[in-house]
């Protein structure tokens, strides 16, 4: 459990650092270097013979590379899309669901035929494809280094306040979101890590446990496409209610896993869990754009993912410890359903807080310089409207 939890946690723990590098050097360079580091980590994992080195090669090196490749793929979408950002995020993140469906069967065949070490080397091909894909990123919004350096060739770093943009935490609605989601994630990933072991304990080897991953992957992809499109029709910060619903249903489904004494019932639970997992993932970036704006979204996502790393790393090992002490996963799954319910309740306050913030900002007095600019704009508008009929009259003669 520690190898997979460490890997999953490191992907998100590195995110604040990744956001800083993304602002400094752009999405393309960060994504390419991240894929290269991940390739090295995965390839080196194929040459170890004990589990201890895997903590570094797979749990840290490979995961850090994936983190540097993952976050720019979310940020770059905001450079190209605004009105349909939710749908675009759904389409892009649905790619992981596609491989969640296909990889378990492929890995079973590869491990049975060429063993684990050669399987890891085959997977390096996918990392190399990711390395090449990073070169296609073409940022349209200038990064911090370009703004501060001016001409090319100057290596002038911006001030520390602009490198680490902690000003996003001044936004109250973002603070609630950034701490409410990690509170929900203490039990969120427990089913994903321990579900297969629970099936073996409950049903033995008589059922195909890969079917559960298939159900999770298919419905997660459908959820990302459907809810991503739905999010485009929901105005402003009210998109957060989709995440509230997803946490509620995921917490409820986690509590229902121990109650499933028939494999078919467990399949139905996984179908619903995957659907709302897709809802939660696909609207993270659109919500961040709504709360802090396009300029600060990179570090806003980075700080959020960094805070998510702690519960994601701690939750599954605690569930494994409960299983070792009690001999069953039942209590672990019951407890795993509680944090998503609490986190969802916290997030319910965000739309109300965000609207109050907007009203306060709109009620602020306008300074003299802004007033002069507004008067200049009004005067130019009036002059344009008066000159237009004269030009039309001249052209008529």
TrEMBL record:
Localization annotation: Membrane
Keyword RNA-binding: no
Highest taxon listed in the record's lineage: Eukaryota
One cellular-component annotation, GO: basolateral plasma membrane
Disordered: annotated segments: 363-397
Regions crossing the membrane: 6-25, 30-49, 55-78, 85-107, 119-137, 172-191, 211-228, 240-259, 265-289, 301-319, 331-353
Domain Major facilitator superfamily (MFS) profile: 168-397
Single GO MF annotation: transmembrane transporter activity
Bias type Basic and acidic residues, positions: 363-376, 385-397
Gene3D superfamilies found in the cross-reference section: MFS general substrate transporter like domains (1.20.1250.20)
Membrane topology field: Multi-pass membrane protein
Keywords: Membrane, Transmembrane, Transmembrane helix
Pfam assignment, any one: MFS_1
Name this protein carries in UniProt: MOT10 protein
Species of the source: Sitta europaea
Taxonomic lineage: Eukaryota, Metazoa, Chordata, Craniata, Vertebrata
Gene responsible for this protein: Slc16a10
